[in-house]
Amino acid sequence: MLPKDFMLGAASAAYQVEGNNTHSDLWLMEQMPHTTFSEPSLDACDHYHRYEEDIRLAAAAGLNAYRFSIEWGRIEPEEGVFDEAEVEHYRDVIRCCRANGVEPVVTLHHFSSPIWLIRKGGWDAETTPADFERYVRHVMERLGGELSFVCTINEANMGLQIARIAERYAQQARAAAAAMAAASQAAEADGAVDESQVQMGLNLKKMMENQQLQKAENKEAFGTEDPQTFQSPRSRHSDEVVCEAHRRARAAIRELCPHVKVGLTLSLHDLQPVPGGEALAAAEWVDEFTHYLPVIEGDDFLGVQNYTRTRVGAEGDLPVPEGAEVTQMGYEFYPQALEHVLRAVAKEWTGDIIVTENGIGTDDDARRVAFIDEALAGVERCLDDGIPVKGYFYWSLMDNFEWQKGYSMRFGLIAFDRATQERSPKPSLAHLGSYVKKPLG
Fold first, then answer.
1. Model pLDDT, residue 208
2. What letter does residue 55 receive in the DSSP assignment?
3. Other C-beta atoms within 10 Å of 441: how many?
4. Tell me: the pLDDT tens digits for 207-239?
5. Contacts of 291 (CB under 8 A, 6+ apart)
6. pLDDT of 269 above 70
7. What confidence score (pLDDT) does residue 187 get?
8. Could you read off the pLDDT of 335-385 as tens digits, one per residue?
9. What are the sequence ranges of the domains in the chain?
10. Which residues contact 221 (CB under 8 A, 6 or more apart)?
């Protein structure tokens, strides 16, 4: 049984649901002739205008919390220029949550960045932590008094995961180039890039193949052939830029709003070594988690985001086992992974934990229900063993724009018609809400 003050809700990201985030880097990237996006976001779910309906649907189903993000490009469309009307929009979203008995949990950066930031060097620039702090201060000075929980950065480790997969692809490409044409074709047909190892909708193979074609387009859009967006393969230097941005944001939040609990979120896999893969699995866990421990020391909570497991062999990550059930994203259907990750995290992090994302992309809502049941059963077992899990947010509240995969991946508890924007709650929404024993407050 979940505690009565347990936050049970769903999550979204502004860029994926609001629509028309024209001041953000990904909007420009969607428009490029050689874009890696399968389709443009356009109006998305029009959550920007329909948030009241969406929040009310969540509350009516019994959910008592909603994690959503604030779009930096809306708040600061030009460097140092703030749009107060957009600040007030997010105040309205927060107050709508409160009016419906839903705890708002705000994320200040969820993958997309202002165009001007990328033109300055993006997430490799020494100036970015200060720029992020300025934005955070502006938001918290105005909205912090109405918040209790803030995530600074979503999946701070994402760039390292992408770098690992990109390097694997590059190695395969070099090997193929050195082989005979027939061997090269066979290597390509074999599978090469396993995009399911990144917990985000990316077209990694297309990203790598389009690099040369995109250089001129990047130069025109961002002033550089190699823009350092948050999703770019990340160097150790870039990783430190992200970490410093979190430190400065946390300090600003503590100064301005000491009542607010602050943390960041990490994308974590249930790493399962097969014989011979133990050393590699351990190294991956350092990259994904433990090297961030000094960075998050003193945070009020850690946001854990998990979707599946990763089996690791002597040569690296292994494909999904033959015959296993897979989701639309190519992930193995493996809801048990969440419990495993929570237990692994708790061995080295003694603070509070919030499951800020966990979910499944599928058109079979019965499988979504089954996934939720198994995932929450694991959470309850962790709670029984004293692991301080304070909340669970299913990803996602509604079907949405799954980044480079477009609208083909359906994670939502609520479906929507792209032509009419009509909402249709799925049975899984009420099922998740049924776990709430007593509303917060």
1. 58
2. H
3. 8
4. 556 677 889 999 999 999 999 999 999 999 999
5. none
6. yes
7. 47
8. 999 999 999 999 999 999 999 999 999 999 999 999 999 999 999 999 999
9. 7-433
10. 28, 29, 32, 115, 227
CA 156/CA 425 separation, integer angstroms: 31
Give the position of tokens 């990550």: 317
Displacement of CA 8 from its chain's centroid (Å): 18
Count CB-CB contacts under 10 A for residue 40.
14
The DSSP secondary-structure symbol of 319 reads P
The single-letter code of the amino acid at 156 is A
By annotation, the residues acting in catalysis are 155
Structure pTM? 0.92
Model confidence at 441: pLDDT above 50? no
> What's the chain's length in residues?
441
The pLDDT of 134-156, averaged and rounded, is 98
The predicted-structure confidence for 405-421, as pLDDT tens digits, reads as follows: 999 999 999 999 999 99
Cis? peptide before 396, omega within 30° of 0:
yes
SS3 content of the chain, % helix, strand, coil (to 5): 45, 15, 35
DSSP secondary structure of 403-438: GGGGGG----SEEE-TTT--EEE-HHHHHHHTT-SS
Tokens describing residue 15? 């860029």
What is the per-residue pLDDT for 19?
A: 98
> Among 166, 146, 141, 306, which residue's Cα sits nearest to residue 233?
166
- 326 forms bridges with which residues in the sheet? 332
What tokens appear for 56 in the block? 């009310």
Residue 301, Cβ density class (10 Å: 0-12 exposed, 13-18 middle, ≥19 buried): buried
Distance CA 223, CA 227 (A): 8
CB 217 within 8 A of CB 172: no
Q: Structure tokens of 331?
A: 């992930």
By C-alpha distance, which of 342, 338, 331 is closest to 372? 338
Q: Could you give the CA distance from residue 424 to residue 141 in angstroms, rounded to a whole number?
A: 37
Instruction: Give, as one character, the DSSP assignment of residue 22.
Output: T
Cα dihedral sign, 349-254-138-249: negative
Mean pLDDT of 85-94: 98
Two tokens, residue 278: 């133990």
CATH code, residues 7-433: 3.20.20.80
Does residue 183 carry a pLDDT above 50? no
CA angle 99, 16, 28 (to 5 degrees): 135
* Token pair recorded at residue 163: 């770098």
Across the chain, mean pLDDT equals 93
Question: Nearest CA to 242 among 322, 319, 296, 282?
Answer: 296
Residue located via tokens 């690296």? 316
Cα diameter, the chain? 67
Q: Would you state the pLDDT for residue 342?
A: 99
Residue with tokens 């090297």: 291
pLDDT for 26 beyond 60? yes
